[in-house]
Task: inverse folding
């Protein structure tokens, strides 16, 4: 049975709803949260009668974050289909994937719609790898981790990268692509085999964006 506990859903008296939290995740702000609902990793206040759970957990203990409580929306305005898909048996399915640590804090690892399932059944959350590589190498301006072709049928985990050539030049880096490859190689040395980046594609232009400035993800070559 999934673990359900009363959780913290307010910070300094302000309640952070699922939509606001989803927007915050895209900003790169590092968040941690109790099971089922999110809080900043600092002392906040309790919002009573709000509970949460991890739905359909994987072997690694990761699953979709679902929440329930008086501060959760009743549904989408004039969209019964979307409401029925998002709210099941009173639980709001956020679409965020998370894991719980030993202190009952939960960490966002990705979005369900971006999940990559490998042939061996392992789940890869591209946002997790993208964040690690972006932090590791300052010359990565934009990155998308996805499945890439390596033959007629085989798919490899790859990274499509838009380098920050201007920053590299200012710092005396003559070969920015080599610098990025070195960072990826170091990343691979610390990760399990199924999370290793096996292919890198460099691009000369920024990724196409949505109206909210999010990268439009391309899932296959």
Result:
């Amino acid at each position: 049975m999934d673990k359900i506990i009363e959780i913290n859903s307010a910070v300094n008296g302000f309640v952070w709803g699922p939509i606001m939290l989803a927007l915050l995740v895209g900003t790169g702000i590092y968040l941690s949260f109790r099971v089922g609902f999110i809080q900043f990793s600092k002392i906040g206040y309790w919002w009573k009668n709000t509970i949460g759970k991890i739905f359909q957990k994987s072997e690694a203990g990761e699953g979709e974050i679902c929440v329930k409580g008086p501060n959760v929306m009743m549904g989408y305005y004039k969209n019964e289909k979307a409401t029925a898909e998002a709210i099941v048996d009173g639980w709001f399915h956020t679409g965020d994937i998370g894991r719980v640590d030993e202190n009952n804090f939960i960490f966002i690892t990705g979005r369900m719609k971006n999940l990559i399932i490998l042939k061996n059944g392992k789940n890869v959350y591209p946002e997790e790898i993208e964040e690690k590589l972006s932090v590791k190498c300052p010359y990565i301006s934009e990155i998308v981790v996805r499945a890439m072709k390596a033959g007629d049928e085989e798919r490899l985990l790859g990274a499509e990268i838009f380098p920050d050539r201007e920053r590299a030049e200012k710092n005396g880096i003559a070969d920015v692509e080599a610098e990025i490859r070195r960072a990826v190689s170091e990343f691979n040395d610390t990760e399990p085999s199924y999370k290793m980046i096996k292919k890198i594609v460099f691009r000369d232009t920024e990724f196409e964006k949505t109206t909210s400035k999010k990268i439009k993800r391309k899932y296959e070559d």
